Amino acid sequence: MPRVSQDHLEARRRQILDGSRVCFARYGYEGATVRRLEEATGLSRGAIFHHFRDKESLFLALAEEDAARMADVVAQQGLVQVMRELLAEGSDHPADWLGTRLEVSRRLRTDPEFRGRWAERSHQLTAATRQRLLWQRQAGNLRDDVDVDVLTAYLELVLEGLVSHLAMGLPADDLGPVLDLVEESVRRHRVRASADS
Amino acid sequence: MPRVSQDHLEARRRQILDGSRVCFARYGYEGATVRRLEEATGLSRGAIFHHFRDKESLFLALAEEDAARMADVVAQQGLVQVMRELLAEGSDHPADWLGTRLEVSRRLRTDPEFRGRWAERSHQLTAATRQRLLWQRQAGNLRDDVDVDVLTAYLELVLEGLVSHLAMGLPADDLGPVLDLVEESVRRHRVRASADS
Question: Complex ipTM above 0.90?
Answer without folding.
Answer: no
